[in-house]
């Protein structure tokens, strides 16, 4: 079928809205009409040329309506409203242990932009293949294919166009706090980077019952938003005395630290901000080698986290329930853009403006 998609053809160039041909769903796939798709910083990775090189359709925080299902699909039917998340195999040891974010084939299924056999379901107007299995969905399009394992059925009464970010960025931030790090009530948490992932972590810290929540960011408006969403303190990441300030606020060091920046100097500050027995979680793409001296991490735990260590079929409904209870206002991070303004949305996000762009296909 012919669909409209935002195609990245040049790593240094803009997305272009194109008419492309999308294959019918395979036996284990579902066809989804995309209602909204969040933009995540991970969508920038194909611009590096190292993974999923162009031409590629990115987008991995889709939400939409199921229009067709393959013959082998169970648990999902035509007309269902779904949130799309990362793909996993369902049969490896980690998947069987309810740890799909650490699936043996996670990288190949999510970061290569192709099916495991190297094929892709999309061709361009010239008949040439376009990579369209980014995180098992490639949802910067009016329609996309996914599998039954990476769709989560949600209540049809919910605002579907707002739910896509729950599939990755918001899940990563909140899941890291509530699942991977298991932040405990009455403890202290410092979050480095107050973008969508970091602000989700701030909100989740409040849900977890942390009594001291410190947000660190370079942007004043993001620090202000962090305070509105549950942070007890907000510090300027450019302050050379940031470690001492955190230690003073926490009475000798935080119990938990969470880095969303990937910047080695920031990660080291996070470790130095922890007391012994503290735990630090890392997400995102590391921006260089992390070199540690022996004293910076004695008695501390460092965890590199994928997708918040969450199981989407359980954690996405949990986040929705928290939002319905008024305890997890993730919608405050969202600004919608028509898909035709995808390049503007990307630039605003990268410049620290829009916290979480959501693109509306067909507009």
TrEMBL record:
<dbReference type="GO" id="GO:0008270">
    <property type="term" value="F:zinc ion binding"/>
</dbReference>
<feature type="domain" description="Enoyl reductase (ER)">
    <location>
        <begin position="13"/>
        <end position="359"/>
    </location>
</feature>
<dbReference type="InterPro" id="IPR020843">
    <property type="entry name" value="ER"/>
</dbReference>
<comment type="similarity">
    <text>Belongs to the zinc-containing alcohol dehydrogenase family.</text>
</comment>
<dbReference type="InterPro" id="IPR036291">
    <property type="entry name" value="NAD(P)-bd_dom_sf"/>
</dbReference>
<dbReference type="InterPro" id="IPR013154">
    <property type="entry name" value="ADH-like_N"/>
</dbReference>
<dbReference type="Pfam" id="PF00107">
    <property type="entry name" value="ADH_zinc_N"/>
</dbReference>
<keyword id="KW-0479">Metal-binding</keyword>
<keyword id="KW-0862">Zinc</keyword>
<protein>
    <submittedName>
        <fullName>Unannotated protein</fullName>
    </submittedName>
</protein>
<keyword id="KW-0560">Oxidoreductase</keyword>
<dbReference type="GO" id="GO:0016491">
    <property type="term" value="F:oxidoreductase activity"/>
</dbReference>
<dbReference type="InterPro" id="IPR002328">
    <property type="entry name" value="ADH_Zn_CS"/>
</dbReference>
<dbReference type="InterPro" id="IPR011032">
    <property type="entry name" value="GroES-like_sf"/>
</dbReference>
<dbReference type="Pfam" id="PF08240">
    <property type="entry name" value="ADH_N"/>
</dbReference>
<dbReference type="InterPro" id="IPR013149">
    <property type="entry name" value="ADH-like_C"/>
</dbReference>
């Amino acid at each position: 079928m012919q669909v409209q998609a935002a195609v990245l053809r040049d790593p240094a160039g803009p997305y272009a809205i194109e008419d492309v041909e999308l294959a019918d769903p395979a036996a284990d796939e579902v066809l989804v009409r995309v209602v909204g798709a969040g933009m995540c910083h991970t969508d920038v990775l194909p611009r590096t040329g190292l993974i999923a090189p162009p031409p590629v359709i990115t987008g991995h925080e889709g939400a939409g309506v199921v229009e067709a299902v393959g013959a082998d699909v169970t648990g999902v039917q035509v007309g269902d409203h779904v949130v799309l998340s990362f793909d996993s195999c369902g049969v490896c040891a980690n998947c069987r242990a309810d740890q799909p974010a650490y699936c043996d084939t996670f990288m190949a299924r999510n970061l290569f932009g192709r099916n495991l056999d190297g094929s892709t379901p999309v061709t361009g107007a010239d008949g040439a293949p376009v990579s369209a299995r980014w995180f098992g969905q490639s949802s910067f399009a009016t329609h996309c294919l996914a599998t039954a394992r990476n769709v989560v059925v949600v209540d049809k009464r919910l605002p579907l166009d707002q739910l896509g970010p729950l599939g990755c960025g918001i899940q990563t931030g909140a899941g890291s706090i509530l699942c991977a790090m298991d932040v405990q009530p009455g403890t202290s948490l410092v979050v480095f980077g107050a973008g969508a992932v970091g602000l989700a972590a701030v909100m989740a810290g409040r849900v977890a019952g942390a009594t001291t929540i410190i947000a660190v960011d370079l942007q004043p408006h993001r620090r202000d938003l962090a305070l509105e969403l549950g942070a007890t303190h907000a510090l300027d990441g450019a302050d050379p005395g940031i470690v001492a300030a955190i230690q003073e606020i926490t009475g000798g060091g935080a119990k938990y630290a969470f880095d969303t920046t990937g910047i080695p100097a920031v990660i080291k500050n996070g470790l130095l901000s922890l007391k012994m027995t503290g735990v630090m979680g890392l997400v995102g793409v590391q921006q260089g080698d992390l070199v540690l001296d022996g004293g910076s991490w004695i008695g501390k735990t460092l965890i590199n986290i994928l997708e918040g260590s969450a199981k989407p079929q359980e954690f996405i409904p949990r986040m929705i329930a928290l939002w319905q209870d008024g305890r997890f206002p993730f919608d405050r991070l969202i600004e919608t853009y028509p898909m035709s303004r995808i390049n503007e949305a990307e630039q605003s996000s990268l410049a620290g403006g829009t916290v979480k762009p959501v693109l509306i296909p067909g507009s």
